[in-house]
Amino acid sequence: MALSKESTTRPRGRPEAALSRDVEATILAVAEQRFAEQGYAATSMREIASQANVNPAMIHYYFGNKESLLRTVLERALSPLAAAIESMQSADQVSPGEILKTLMGTIASHPSLPYLVMREVMLPGGVMQAHFAEHLAPRLGGALPGLLEREARDGRMRRDVPPQVAALTIMSLAIFPFVVRPVAERVLNVRLEGEALEVMKSQISEVVNKGLMP
């Protein structure tokens, strides 16, 4: 829910913790959507503030400049996935299908994420390419080849599939349905939410396991 400008006017000292979290969450949600839909360059801080129903000064208060805001948007969306992958690295074993389900779960929680990453990380000129490569990728897709290599070494995954190729296969199958979501829902009547999403995750997970496990 958007907060009123009166409720987000900065008081003396730091805002109360609950109000601070509400304001930050509202700004981040709006920023994620706007950056994904129209791109970083075409989105202004004033536009985000207007849609979030806050004073533009509040964005600078919490996040500094626009690039810092975009960096926080990405880290907020991807940190849970990084933590999940780290947990998998500590587990005794993990199947390719489990990795895929984790990836799809993260994306489902942030449906704008594929478009945002495509615009500002993958395409030429993306403003977050360097930051993503240095700070986020090693904890995300960059961590998967080592995890899959362990599974192959212990006999739980095919040895004839390079772990880098296996990682790219899993990421591609996890992300693509969300990239084409508007067409998939309109043309194929494939829903990517609720029970339908769980069915989709299970089906793709089964395909991945059959393709990559012995």
| Global morphology | globular
| Helix and strand pattern | HHHHHHHHHHH
Note the total helix count: 11
CATH architecture of the largest domain: Orthogonal Bundle
Number of domains: 2
Radius of gyration: 19 Å
Q: Find the count of extended strands (DSSP E, 2+ residues).
A: 0
Helix/strand layout:
Blueprint (H helix, E strand, L loop, with lengths): L16 H22 L6 H8 L3 H8 L2 H25 L5 H14 L3 H10 L6 H8 L7 H10 L9 H17 L1 H7 L6 H19 L2
Helix pairs in contact: 1-2, 1-4, 1-6, 4-5, 5-9, 5-11, 8-9, 9-11
Describe this structure in words.
By secondary structure, the protein is mainly alpha-helical. It has two domains: 17-64, Homeodomain-like (Arc Repressor Mutant, subunit A); 70-212, Tetracycline Repressor, domain 2, CATH 1.10.357. It is 69% helix and 0% strand. It is globular. The model is unreliable at 1-13 (pLDDT under 50).
